[in-house]
């Protein structure tokens, strides 16, 4: 059974884009994934994204993706929304992943802008619509032009919002002006996909976060959100400013790399990375430890 949701918060409010734990020899660690998922929910997440970029989706197989969804759904039950990454730059492949995620028990889909091929807006529209048509699951778009090379224009977002199963957008565009217009005109549930902009995006209408730093500061993110919702702007700002060293430290290099290093230090399942990602150098780990300590996280 899927967790309770509303049209305003179809996937919850605080979601962590979960890393994919691997064993020492680089195999998928399903037990570790279940342990980590349970820990993140107990810490305050009401949603988890699996098989996203932070889950090393470019280097996991389709079979591993389905196994991971099934394992995480089993671990969290109806305590949290499990949103499965199904986006690729191949529409047919994305449809296959969407169907497999639905069969494995996912509560929703995350569909990233097709990367590298740089399709025009009409191509984006048809791509996302085809994914949404392929299953009965609600879909969260993922707009991240820094990785994909192409933004989803506001006009395209508004068109896509007419689809009954396209219900949300994860915004990593870094443009508060465009976000303001898109939120106001599309009616989609808006999720911050850029931790540094969590609070600013709330101020223009976002409903929650899809976070990487949620691996280590879920409770603080929840407190920030609740302060904002209650109208305590000063408290929300105070928490945001306290977390600035965490936001900075976790993204000095690629976020999966720093997240797995932090989780390993904290005693949670993480394991190695798959190439082309590589472990932090000793001096980078020292810097991460320093940054997180300044934000109240002690490794």
In N-to-C order, the SSE pattern is EHEHEHEHEHHEHEHEHHHH
Tell me the span between the first and last alpha carbons. 36 Å
Shape: globular
Estimate what percentage of residues fall within beta strands: 5-15%
pLDDT < 50 stretches: none
* Sheet with most strands: strand arrangement: 1-2-3-4-5-6-7-8
- The residue-averaged pLDDT reads 97
Residue share in helices? 40-55%
Structural commentary:
- The chain is 48% helix and 12% strand.
- It is built from twelve helices and eight strands.
- The chain has helices at residues 30-43, 62-76, 91-104, 121-134, 145-148, 154-160, 176-186, 198-203, 214-229, 233-250, 255-266, 282-294; strands at 14-17, 47-50, 81-85, 108-112, 139-143, 166-171, 189-192, 208-211.
- It has an eight-stranded parallel beta barrel, surrounded by five helices.
- The longest helix is centred in the C-terminal third of the chain and has 18 residues, at 233-250.
- The model has no long low-confidence stretch (mean pLDDT 97).
